[in-house]
Amino acid sequence: MEIEKYLIRKSSLEKLFIKLIGKGKTIYAPKLKGEMALFENVTAFTEIIEEYIVTTNSAKSVVFPKVEKVFSYKKSKEDTEITDASTNPYPEVVLWGSRPCDAAAFIPLTDTFNRDYTDVIYNKRLNNLIILSFSCSQCDEYCFCTSVNGGPGNTAGSDILFTKLSTGDYLAEVITEKGKLLATENSDLFEAKPEEDKEQNLAKVTAYFNQDEIQAKLQNLFENPIWDEKSRACLGCGTCVFVCPVCSCFDIQDEAHGGKGTRLRCWDSCGFGLFTLHTSGHNPRETQGARWRQRMMHKFLYMPDKTRVAGCVGCGRCSRACPADINILDTVCSI
Amino acid sequence: MIMNEFEPKIVAFVCNWCTYAGADLTGTSRIKYAQNVKIIRFPCTGRIDFMLLLKAFGEGADGIIVSGCHPNDCHYTSGNFHARRRWIMFRGLLDLLGIDVRRIQYSWVSAAEGAKWADIVNTTVTAIRELGPYTDYAKVAGYLEKEAKV
Amino acid sequence: MSKIGVFICHCGENISATVDVVKVAEEAGKLEGVAFSTDYKYMCSDPGQTIIKQMIKEKGLTGVVVAACSPRMHEPTFRKACSEAGLNPYMCEMSNLREHCSWVHDKSDATTQKAIDLVRTLVEKVKYNKPLHNIKVPVTKTALVIGGGIAGIQASLDIANAGHQVVLIEKDPSIGGHMSQLSETFPTLDCSQCILTPRMVEVAQHPNITLLTYAELEKLEGFIGNFKATIRKKAKSIDEKLCTGCGLCTTKCPTKKIPSEFNTGLGFRPAIYVPFPQAVPNKPVIDKLNCQYYLKGKCKVCEKVCPTGAIRFDQEDELVEMEVGAVVAATGFNVMEPSGFPEYGYGKYKDVITGLQFERLASASGPTLGEIRRPSDGAIPKKIVFIACAGSRDPAKGIPYCSKICCMYTAKHAMLYQHKVHGGESYIFYMDIRAGGKNYEEFTRRAIVDDEVNYIRGRVSKVYEENGKLIVKGVDTLLNAKPVEIEADMVVLASAAVANPGSEELAQRMHISYDAYNFFSEAHPKLKPVETNTAGIFLAGACQAPKDIPETVSQASGAAAKVAILFSQNELSREPVVAVVNRSPAPLYSTCVGCFMCATACPYQAIGEELITDRKGNVIKRVAKVNPGLCQGCGTCVAFCRSKSIDIDGYSNEQMYSEVMALLNAE
Amino acid sequence: MNELIKKATTLLESSAVQVVIGYGKGSASRTRAIFVTQPADCDKLIFDSRCVQNLAVYLTKAEIKKLGKPAIVAPIPVLRSILQLAAENQLKEDGLIVLGISPESELVEFESFAAIETFLASNKIEIEDKYKKKIEQIKAMPVSERFDFWVKELELCFKCYACRAACPLCYCTRCTVENNQPQWIPAASHTLGNLEWHVMRAMHLAGRCTDCEACYNACPMGIPIHLLTKSMLQDVEENFGTYGPSLNKQNTLSSFNPDDKESFIR
Fold first, then answer.
1. What fold, for C336-498?
2. ipTM above 0.90, yes or no
């Protein structure tokens, strides 16, 4: 649909928030924990922070939680009775205050969960989700959204994108039907579109590389010393993957308690040695180098091949969070 | 037993040589105690893995008894000494984490102390009854029973 | 998929009276992996075992759970039954429904539910049992006998005569123990030393017996068939090879007034001494605590007079290590110091003595050469009172048990007195006369009828002195409980028999259990009276509980027989409950990372190292390795291993884990 | 740090070592572990207050072992880890060269592991008061409140195992959380799984932890797991006196004293 633009007064934001709470929505928004910003369940508008670059954890868990119950079972000597979890009512969630990169990440994520198989639970959660993003007025040396076809004011993935204007009020871009519905339901808060142009209020994010060029180069870079060099300090933890808004690998686990139990879908990471370990003891990706290569290849080569977009939105979370300071931008740029 | 009074689930981790034998003596002496406590037999307290205690809470135990040979009486000479050190560290850690150490009763019960075993069981059952069901832990253990969460 | 058979025992009514065994069997039948489940009156009986064997064959059972009494009772029985039916014995587990359930609870649904839970727990364990095979260990055919009393002597002689080596250690300078102190023995009144001393000599001369007197057990390591004993040979300060036992030193020693232990303080001995004339070995030792030289640094008279120059003042305690295959504990008993009885005035009045002291007075080799003379003035007592149960059967004094021998020796004492002191009057205050035993009742009758000993059924409240007489105030409960008062010249207390001082420490050194009174515990009160809970260590005599001589001797022979049975095998097969370090596929080979903290924790030094090498012999990895011969299966290493790389057969991680899960997750 | 650079260069030139594990410039204002194999690159080595990552963790990593004999830049926390690793038979004395950095940022060289122990004797582990206070505060809470405090923290854990990966003493080739026979710890990062993981982690460090805080620094969610190990360090000191790594002192849990406290045992 055609993007519709409105003005939202500074004071109206809280009103909107309260209305949403009133409608029984669960709201996830950036919140402070010590010095770090985290997406967490918020119940009071004042908990929400606006002046931050990106949160430490990504927003993916609103559709792809770290632990997702798939079904529960009860075994008896005769048979096994199964209760499908996807018949559960999933919470109506509003993701509030996400960045354009966060919102953009839902595109590759959704592609992954619908490519060859339509994941019921994921899509149910997605349908219950409204994404209200806020443009970036600041960035840091880890940000590179502009290198992966994104930007500080990118509307892709959001239902409504708010951009703070010099007046302190906001430009609201209503992008999707979901957004439109929300706008009409709260038409009293959505006023005629402002004059002020959005661009001047956005952060300037350097473009370090071109996604398409990288994709091309990676075609024949499988055997290359760069992977070992760049990952030498890698400790083999799963941080980069778990904070990544796009990484979607999971592991299926059954938790048994006597004859009863649950099957779970749990986040997994290609950074773990165990990820590809065979029962035989053989490991096709034996070194961190091989694992780091897989991650890069997956994001910048395989995914753009198989889905609409690259597997990286340039939020820079992985680099910020890495305990060994392995920097994705650094790796990509040295390709 | 009074109906629908809270009946604590208590697991006893005991060594084969002293406390298990002691509990046998309680039986041969026909000393009565509460049904709430069920014994798991280990070769030695040295064998008792702290993870198993944790698992017991995870699976819904309201209380735990860990018991073996008195110091210097260990059938394997020093298993109980090693166990005691492990318990000291484990106890401190659980306490810091707010896992209620009052719910774990450590004791020495020799093969000759049938009466002491009965007493340990009964006093522990009473103590756990007073503490009530371990809802704090159940809350965490029951994570998946809760409505699908992010 | 496991096929487990569950067999619920009624144990007559021991279990079925309180547990609904039928329901338990029914519930067990519903468990996943259970192929057969039933209940039966006596599982341990022949027909009971037959059911198990049949079902193993018929249903092709892969595991068996017998829910009956304590596994400590019948585990071997049922494991044997299983192996006879072709199932590996270690695929059989027992659920303890008797000692841990039916005997400790009243009949109720909760009791039955507990039984069901216990059975389910073992069913889940058995699913993770794996076939195990006994471990063979060699047997060192030398026995260590601790204590040179009649028990130790008898045991040593029997084992030695069976053709095996024996090391007999005695803490005192001579063997003989309490029996050598006795005068005559009941019920035959034959002289104690006359029957004992030949045995003592036999021990000294027996080619298969190594006798170490003045020696104590310092340390005992190892396990059945393979113990390592460390013995402390206390310095005797003489060279035994040179000493001829002429005794010159003992007569010349200036320090003569040391109360003689052998004569229970009624006589004296010098600082260099032989405890008694018939001592074996008949060679003196120097009592360092009383010797002038050791105390003041001068004297050395003995050295001067010794014709062979055998005195060695510089001699020091010596620690000797020896390999032994079995141990017999025969450390005997002691008599309670009746100073705990102010009411009887022991310690206050010279003429109030213990039974053992009376033995010395009555003994021909004693301080009075067998004449009954009172310690105070050596006068012959005209009236004598014996007080039975001085301490025994008296919970208030901490001794609820019966000392067993007092009734008989008190009767004996009274008879000896009547025989030796004509016209003398003897009285015995008693609670009951316990004269169970061959010719015992007849013996006490003779005391009462032939020797006119006055038996008064009642207790003594007070003994006090009044113009040279000991006034004994008591009560006669038979003649409508009238108080009695006797003016006695002497009072003899049948003080309780108690465990030897230090027996607690000794038990700990041997790793055997002991009871609340520090008597050593037998493995089973009825069926294993000479065994201890520690395989390879046996009990003989009063170290287990008060006993008279015939009982002691028979138990000693029993222990000797057990040792002989053990030594009849060249190899022992041991329960394969041992730790194992895991193996995993290359490139890991084992998850053990070789931190070797298990090795530092192991009480048996059973964990060494193993180098995993490739075909060319290059070392790939250094990991821990368990020596199954040394490992005793305590599992301390298992709980200690961070990477769970070491596990123990029979109590494996999966077994214990599944037990916890099953116990807390009722279906 | 010219001394350090000089020393590193000579070591590489003389091929006394094949790699120098040290600190170099990282992203933004951070420093990162670098692995210098060419003498010419030694000038990339830096050392300042930002260099907090515990480099000892790399000594047991397969990828790094492949590079050959290492020299390692070792400020106090790294030295402690090296000593503990040595005590646990994970390092060979002739297998590495230790370039110690004193609290005064002076280069210190060591003949042997024993020398490191002597050096550390005058640099004992000291738990900072702010942590002691924090631990006291937590212990002062009512037991349920204390539990809730931790549950709230542990709900954030997503089991990236950065705490494990960053800890020099977590060198097991197969961690028990990866063992599913039995499944000791749920693989899922729900609160129970997280709680059990962190209890196990702390217990496995009992008497071994050298208080380098690598676990906490690595945790992306800022969960104060270092308080667990710090509090256990206090417990070790309080109960057993022994404290800090040592070559000859036996490990706290693999040794015992017959008179250990047992006031809590009936």
1. FAD/NAD(P)-binding domain (3.50.50)
2. yes
